[in-house]
Automatic annotation (TrEMBL):
Pfam families referenced in this protein's UniProt entry, alphabetically: Usp
Protein's name in the database: Nucleotide-binding universal stress protein, UspA family
CDD domains: USP-like
Superkingdom classification of source: Bacteria
The species this protein was found in: Apibacter mensalis
The UspA domain, residue ranges: 1-142
Cleavable signal peptide: none
Protein family membership: Belongs to the universal stress protein A family.
Length: 150
């Protein structure tokens, strides 16, 4: 069975990316791996005394992200598609590429960006890094996809 990796960042374009992934999965009989790469600084805050790590903050953030992924998983399964969810922490492009290799994925479906322009300028584009290093085909869903719906 074909497998596709669908990175999910909970941005405004996520539902359009998932819509395209569902169309592709139905057309090809592929199973889907919804992958969320959580921020490495999820439990850190900056206060008067500098950086502080608050494990309860990290746990709350992971719980919220997991809950959202479970909702996506349920919706996709209701459409008759085999799907699993994965949450990992690390550098997004590296984790996406490692998951694609680990799962012998045939395709990665992702958005062109999900973060603001400033973050993209500072960190670099996750999509660009995945495109430059991927050994499997990538389908990029444009950020303005919803403007083309009828």
């Amino acid at each position: 069975m074909k497998t596709m990796i669908v990175p999910v960042d909970f941005s405004a374009s996520t539902k359009y990316i998932l819509k395209e992934a569902v169309i592709y999965a139905k057309a090809t009989g592929s199973k889907m791996c919804l992958l969320h790469v959580a921020s490495l600084d999820l439990g850190f805050i900056i206060g008067d005394i500098g950086f502080q790590y608050l494990p309860e903050l990290e746990q709350a953030g992971m719980k919220e992200e997991t809950g959202q992924l479970v909702e996506y998983e349920k919706s996709i399964k209701e459409q008759g598609i085999e799907v699993e969810i994965v949450i990992k922490q690390g550098t997004p492009a590296d984790i996406i590429l490692k998951e694609a290799e680990l799962r012998k994925a045939n395709l990665i479906i992702m958005g062109s960006h999900g973060r603001g322009i400033l973050m993209e300028a500072i960190l670099g584009s996750v999509s660009k890094n995945v495109i430059n290093k991927s050994k499997v085909p990538i389908l990029i869903v444009p950020p303005n996809q919803h403007h083309h719906e009828k």
